[in-house]
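2024-03-11 09:14:02 DEBUG pipeline.ingest accepted 1 chain
2024-03-11 09:14:02 DEBUG pipeline.ingest length=431
2024-03-11 09:14:03 DEBUG pipeline.predict start
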Amino acid sequence: MKYTTIQEAITKGKGPVSIHGWVYRERGSNKLKFIVLRDSTNIIQCVLKKEDFSDKEWESIGKVQIEASMELEGEIKEDKRAPTGFEVQVKKFNIIGESNNFPINKDLNEELLGDRRHLWLRSQKMTAIMKIRSTVLGAIHEYFRSKKFYEFNSPLIIPGGAEDGPTMFEIKYFDKKMNLAQTWQLYAEAALYSLEKIYCIAPSFRAEKSSTSRHLTEYWHTEMEVAWTSLNELMDYADEMVKFVISKVLKENKEELKILGRDIKKLEPSTKKKFPRMTYDEALKILKEKKKMNIPWGKDLRTIEEEKLIEDYDTPVFVTHYPKEAMAFYKPKDPNNPKTAVCFDMLAPEGNGELIGGSMRDTDIEELKKSLKTKGEDLEDYKFYFDIHSYGAVPHGGYGLGTERLIKWICGLDNIKDAIAFPRTPTRSSP
């Protein structure tokens, strides 16, 4: 008989089925054995009666432990008492791979679960998160392609950086020193003069010694770059993209969100409302008047200030025009207020902080050189970047989304480490 997934068997509801998977739970007596089998689609309770098997077979059934892999054949029927409402009366079985003392149990702390991440991925929680992650990544691709963007790939080994130098991972590249990419941006700006509308989802690396619930040293960076654009249009793209992704997850991952205990009512407003927009100056005013937090002008907003700022909102919020001196070198001065940059951050509700950072891009080569010198960068590393804007520069901009931050928010996770299969942090580099 052809093997079906557990979900296909449940959908069938009655009659003969053949399924295979791993033992999720097991219990029984000397006459009856209950095995809850799991595969990537669902779990189902399977019942084995001693009278249906030989003594040798029953002996082997008695030795089955959690995470053993099995093939089972039998009759499926509805049973409200079973975990998923259906049960298989097993007539034939085959143990494919044995399992002895699976080293994951409810008593393990976070650090030990991290050490055994390669096995913890099998848990219902992590399986649900990885399914939602897959939906998120697929939805991002779908959104940008629906807007006629081209997918563009840039190098991960680069000579210089795009953010502050100290946050770069330096690597040995034959006989010279290079760095792992923090962003695709400088190369994306070269490509947009050809393709005009581009995006990517790729790894980025930040050597920040930050062990917060929102930081990874290796993460998947969703980035886009557009020619002939404006700051408002960039925010429109960001607003639409996040709405599109959340809507996809709410449609396709109801069961996974249920497993995670996620209150979907907290996500629904973000699929319907336009996200509010405010300037940095307006944000400081709100913090002072409503939250009793007096932040000096020129200071970048910390996590605690971001959380306070948006705690009264049920959707993400855009904050624009941060102080130029606190921003990356490529963010241009606002002609109407040169002390500020033409940029934005999108801050997520429920204490999730910055999701997206974006800006217009400076095409004034002398201004770029001045900013880079101020930050102690070697101008030789950026020679090609100056070249880009020497031939037909146009207004352009883009943004970067920390993909795991979006997944963390959608799933309602306490820590970003659970939004990726194998997290990398200052204290975690294996497995």
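2024-03-11 09:14:41 DEBUG pipeline.report The longest helix spans residues 124-146.
2024-03-11 09:14:41 DEBUG pipeline.predict end
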